[in-house]
Design a protein that fits this description.
Jelly Rolls; 174 residues; 33% strand; globular; mainly beta; five-stranded antiparallel β-sheet; six-stranded antiparallel β-sheet
Length: 174
């Protein structure tokens, strides 16, 4: 006998928007993205990011980015438990004129996020939350990995730079 239950289930959702000061590392991080998108192992135009992109783990050990990540997560630690999560991937993005990001999620990860390195006329859109966030330098977003998000086509002549990241769940057995 097959039993099928079909029902919408509400699950807790995290969305945090913070503003951090990146003025002392912004140019270095943008330069790192420019270097990373030139490497053979880049993922430019090969993923949901229809723009230039470094490889998936390009920023995992970048001291400037890790410092920004810690700064962005400082207030979060008071609200959510990050002890069972660790950085899984972090990659640089350069969105130029005509580039965009397709609607997608990072469902295989517990949390995702993005740090914007410069102001841009674009917005990141979260339809499930009925939310649009203007992209400004130092905007730090941290959200549940299952949330769909995207960015419409860049209609300006200004490049947008960002570092996206994922946290995976890790079990610490005693």
């Amino acid at each position: 006998m097959i039993r099928i239950i079909e029902k919408k289930v509400l699950i807790p959702t995290i969305f945090c928007q913070n503003k951090i000061n990146i003025s002392n590392v912004k140019n270095k991080l943008i330069s790192d993205i420019e270097e990373g998108i030139k490497l053979k192992n880049n993922f430019s135009y090969k993923t949901n990011v229809k723009g230039q992109m470094t490889d998936w783990k390009y920023f995992n050990k970048n001291n400037e980015f890790i410092s920004c990540l810690k700064n962005g997560c400082d207030d979060l630690i008071k609200l959510i438990n990050l002890e069972d999560a660790e950085i899984e991937s972090s990659w640089g993005i350069k969105i130029s004129t005509g580039d965009y990001t397709k609607p997608h999620n990072h469902i295989e990860n517990i949390y995702s996020g993005v740090l914007y390195l410069n102001d841009c006329e674009q917005e990141i859109i979260f339809d499930e939350l009925n939310l649009k966030v203007k992209i400004l330098e130092g905007t730090f977003l941290f959200f549940s990995g299952f949330l769909k998000h995207y960015v419409d086509r860049n209609l300006t002549n200004q490049d947008k730079y960002a570092i996206a990241f994922n946290f995976k769940s890790v079990k610490k057995w005693n």
